[in-house]
Amino acid sequence: MVEAYSIPVTKIERSRLPGVKLENIPFGRTFTDHMLEADYENGEWKNVEIKPYQPLVISPSLAALHYGQAIFEGIKAYKNSAGESFIFRPYDNYKRFNLSAARMEMPAVPEDIFMEGMRQLVALDSNWIPALHDHSLYIRPFMFSSDEMIGVRPSENYKFLIILAPTGPYYSAPMRIYVEEKYTRAAPGGVGQAKAAGNYGSSMYVTAQAKKQGYDQVLWTDVYEHKYVQEIGTMNVFFVIGDTAVTPDLSSGTILAGVTRDSVMTILEEMGLKVEEKPVSVDMLMEAYKAGTLREVFGTGTAATVSLIRELKYKDFVMTFDTAKWTVTPEIKNRLDAIREGHAADKFGWMFKV
Ligand SMILES: *Cc1c(COP(=O)(O)O)cnc(C)c1O
């Protein structure tokens, strides 16, 4: 018989939960009572433990702060009406985490630390999972280089942590999107397909410029011609054109392979739409818009789930949409929510019991 992987646990003396209002709790600001921490030293993972959520003590020479070997994941846990807790497709995030690690020359995190550690941590803090519609517990695994030495080379030491944050609805209003044609996010051969911290740091300036002009996010385009769309912020993008849903394909390695993206493709097919992964040019989108066949545009990601897009601006051309008339995007969200919140059968095997 396989022994359950046992992780030492130090419990908090008194939970902070009674002082927290879970309803409509803003994303990413409140953390649960416990966290998981592990160290990579001398070629192996050790000191795996679950302990009270607390600050880390770091040296000013911490390698991650200087050279950016840092990656993360985003996953959500839900509670059904029977009070059971489930995590949405965590194994897909586990695999992606180690792909990001490999690209950043960081060690892989073993499955028992990542998966079983996450399960035990979520089980311990399961009272923090809001059992409310559109609410969940956001799970943030992350790893960074922890050598205390200045010098550009891969670290010998790393830290892996998992923290948890209860969260309410993320983006509520339909978004205005600026199609970026000056700055770029990811080039072939780069790290666009990795959830590497630096990808987000480098996007802040560009997003801030777009926000000054009244946009919510930018839609990134290819580095050569600014002709083919990639993704939006921390979301993949879909276009419903006629009876086909189109999303940029992943072959150039510039786009993060979203777990929500994959789930939405499955749901779209279940709804009877054709799904195409292919290069998506802005020209093609403008043609479809002019012909009246570009019906719906939306972003997908763990944090926001499905976000409606009411405006796309490319150079002087503005495409606007009356999102109140949409049928496909709301239906996707309903079907996904129903599975995750336990109102519909988990026919695709996406829900991992805690
Ligand atoms: C995390 C992320 C996504 C969405 O991935 P999910 O697995 O669906 O959460 C899309 N694009 C980028 C750049 C991301 O960081």
Automatic annotation (TrEMBL):
Question: Part of which pathway?
Answer: Amino-acid biosynthesis; L-isoleucine biosynthesis; L-isoleucine from 2-oxobutanoate: step 4/4; Amino-acid biosynthesis; L-leucine biosynthesis; L-leucine from 3-methyl-2-oxobutanoate: step 4/4; Amino-acid biosynthesis; L-valine biosynthesis; L-valine from pyruvate: step 4/4
UniProt keyword Transferase present: yes
What EC identifiers does the entry list?
A: 2.6.1.42
Provide one Gene Ontology biological process annotation.
Answer: isoleucine biosynthetic process
Q: Report which superkingdom the organism of origin falls in.
A: Bacteria
N6-(pyridoxal phosphate)lysine: residues carrying this PTM: K195
Q: Which UniProt keywords apply?
A: Amino-acid biosynthesis, Aminotransferase, Branched-chain amino acid biosynthesis, Pyridoxal phosphate, Transferase
Which GO molecular function entries does the Swiss-Prot or TrEMBL record give? L-isoleucine-2-oxoglutarate transaminase activity; L-leucine-2-oxoglutarate transaminase activity; L-valine-2-oxoglutarate transaminase activity
- What reactions does this protein catalyze? L-leucine + 2-oxoglutarate = 4-methyl-2-oxopentanoate + L-glutamate; L-valine + 2-oxoglutarate = 3-methyl-2-oxobutanoate + L-glutamate; L-isoleucine + 2-oxoglutarate = (S)-3-methyl-2-oxopentanoate + L-glutamate
Tell me which stretches of the chain form a coiled coil: none
Cofactors per UniProt? pyridoxal 5'-phosphate
Q: InterPro entries, alphabetically?
A: Aminotrans_IV, Aminotrans_IV_CS, Aminotransferase-like, B_amino_transII, BCAT-like_C, BCAT-like_N, BCAT_family
SUPFAM superfamilies linked to this entry: D-aminoacid aminotransferase-like PLP-dependent enzymes
Q: Indicate the family of this protein.
A: Belongs to the class-IV pyridoxal-phosphate-dependent aminotransferase family.
Q: According to its UniProt entry, what is the function of this protein?
A: Acts on leucine, isoleucine and valine.
- Write down what this protein is called: Branched-chain-amino-acid aminotransferase
Its organism's taxonomic lineage begins at: Bacteria, Pseudomonadati, Bacteroidota, Chitinophagia, Chitinophagales
